[in-house]
Specification:
89 residues, 43% helix, mainly alpha
Length: 89
């Protein structure tokens, strides 16, 4: 039996959830071990549960015929100026 689709799979928008205190403690312990935390030296690690602003992005529009012609002509002009006309064949 397949699990139900998450909100992300259905709506293509990320879902956020706060980490549990246990998860935060595990992350803190892992980070401490990785950096070689030494409290006698005054080292400390703080793990916080923060979210970043999610920006919405619009899908790029497909260029129209005139835009494709303009790009082709611009590329050919640049090739002509530099002497490499292979892209204008």
């Amino acid at each position: 039996m397949m699990p139900p689709k998450s909100a992300r799979q259905r709506n293509h928008t990320p879902t956020r959830r706060k980490r549990t205190p246990e998860e935060l403690k595990q992350i803190e312990q892992l980070a401490s071990a990785v950096i070689g935390l030494d409290t006698a030296r005054g080292d400390n690690v703080t793990v916080q549960n923060l979210s970043f602003q999610q920006l919405t992005m619009e899908a790029p529009t497909k260029p129209g015929r005139m835009e494709r012609v303009r790009v082709t002509l611009t590329d050919c002009q640049a090739s002509f100026v530099t002497g490499s006309s292979s892209s204008c064949s």
